[in-house]
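User: Please work through this fold.
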Amino acid sequence: NGGAFTQGASGRLEIEVESTSSYDEIIGVTTASLDGTLKTTTSGSYTIGNTLSGIIRTTGGITGTFSFLDTQITPTIVWKPQVNANNLDLDLVATRDYNNDALNATLTADEKSVAAMMQAELPSATADLATVKSTIDSLDTNAKVADAYSQMSPEKFEGIPSVNFSNAAMQFNNLQ
């Protein structure tokens, strides 16, 4: 209580989440300087948009960002840090992320390419891609998601016009 909260590059902040109303908090600090890793341990189930308000509450503002997020609720649903508009509080918001840090650390180069492509296209997907999104979101381990990604290839996405530009950009980046 009081003073500044500073987390350096090698620091690790762990937040335990029991529900959207019961989670660890850092309150009453003047400022917060963020770096290093944010890790969450989550029990229960959560839906996109659930918010943990004020996991860090300051009176003077928040600077910096975490360099690594280990905040998976499921392999593709994560807690994303979000600084409030007043720049005084840090919230965590349940967000779909097919290319999150913890999952990405377990993927091959080809799987990472598919993950990046999916992140660009699937969040707003409808029709058949909505089925793909739902199926990927239902997988319960990083290994299962990696296996699903490995079964996809840029060639399979060629028939989807909105993906073609992302596919070309991804291939160009891979060649570089």
Q: What stands out?
A: DSSP finds six helices and eleven strands in the chain.
